[in-house]
Amino acid sequence: MFPPTRIRSCLPVINPMFRRLKPHKPFRQISTIHNQTKSVNTTSTKFQKTKWMNFRAIFTKWVPLGSVIYVGWCYIRASVNYEVSKVEIKFYEMFPFRITSRLWGRLAACELPVSIRSLVYGTYVKLFNVNLNDAAVKDLTYYKSLSEFFTRPLRPGARYIAPAPCVSPCDGVVLNCGPADTDKIEQVKGVTYSLEEFLGENKWSTNENNYYNSLLKNKKNILHQCIIYLAPGDYHRFHSPCDWTSNFRRHFSGKLLSVNPWMARLIPGLFTVNERAVYVGEWKHGFFSMTAVGATNVGSIEIYSDPELRTNTKGKRNRIEEFKNTVSYKKGELFGQFNMGSTIILLFEAPADFKFELNAGERVLVGQALTMTSKEQAR
Question: Least CB-packed of 178, 193, 256, 330 within 10 Å?
């Protein structure tokens, strides 16, 4: 036997000789079989990889797409008064609206090329019946992003602030208004939510055994409420409804379910599970609170006097943040904005005969009187 070192030294001479020789027929067959086997193995590997990718696609593509289609189908059925089952509601609540809302918020904040702004915003205007006559700037190319268009300011004089003790803080539709004389409050007719779950622990006044009574400064008074839903086509900024002072804020990082009127009829306690920023203080009759409730695709809730507030962020959705700060607001003063449609809830103390001028289902505008004028109220 030749030593390995000797064989290696001969390879440069032997290799060219073998290259000139034509392979024998059996060798060709073996080579062909080997190539076929290699091709089969490659095809099998590709098939396995494709199969794996398809398996992943079920969860990464088809499940989210199917869920979106299903949620849209629920909207359509609800619009024709189709009765949705409890199982379907539970499925709806499991949908990751917080994640999709953050993605939507980022997308809406992207600056659009000037060349397509008129097309994009014009389509939105037609879909949601937006009234551009009230906007400070009517030129659609002026708005850099969808978020900027959503939160467009009003032109001066577009809204009249009525001489009433309490006015509408926003444009929208009244879901419910009237006395709230128990711990269970109607979000819509026949569907309630818990007062304590909605506001949280009473840390701003003297606690009593009864949560409801602990809120009242004057025991002869009762609580009243007004719930206003802002649709996607509405003016998305909201204002102070009266002269009052806020001294406490509580942020509930909850779910981001839709707050459409039909959804409020389906899910009891909807406003107690959604993300919300509760501002508590006093007005001339005693206790006063104003709450901005988050909803699906609301990128964020912004309060101009509270820059530390951060909504729709990552983390546990059952966390609660509290902040004490005294701020006085004048009636009609800008308070904050939604980056999509949502809901404002007013809960306040007033005499038992305090009357609203509005009914559920009516449309209101910023500054419109929610109650009678001061002279009529005094009678």
Answer: 330
Position 37 scores a pLDDT of 53
> Is 329 within 8 Å of 136 (Cβ atoms)?
no
Name residues whose C-beta falls within 8 Å of residue 101's C-beta, 6 or more positions apart in sequence: 256, 296, 297, 298, 299, 312
Query: What number is the average pLDDT over the span 288-316?
Result: 84
CA 369/CA 166 separation, integer angstroms = 6
The predicted model gives 144-157 an average pLDDT of 91
At residue 77, the pLDDT reads 54
Q: How far apart are CA 139 and CA 329, in angstroms?
A: 32
Mean pLDDT for all residues in the chain? 79
Q: DSSP H helical segments within the chain, as ranges?
A: 4-20, 25-57, 63-79, 86-94, 97-109, 114-128, 146-150, 195-199, 211-215, 261-266, 270-273, 374-378
State the Cα–Cα distance between residues 123 and 144, nearest whole angstrom.
16
* Contact assessment for residue 277 and residue 307, using Cβ atoms and an 8 Å cutoff: no
Which residues have a catalytic role annotated?
171, 239, 342
Query: 37 or 290, which is more confident?
Result: 290
Q: Identify the helix (H) or strand (E) that includes residue 175.
A: strand 172-180
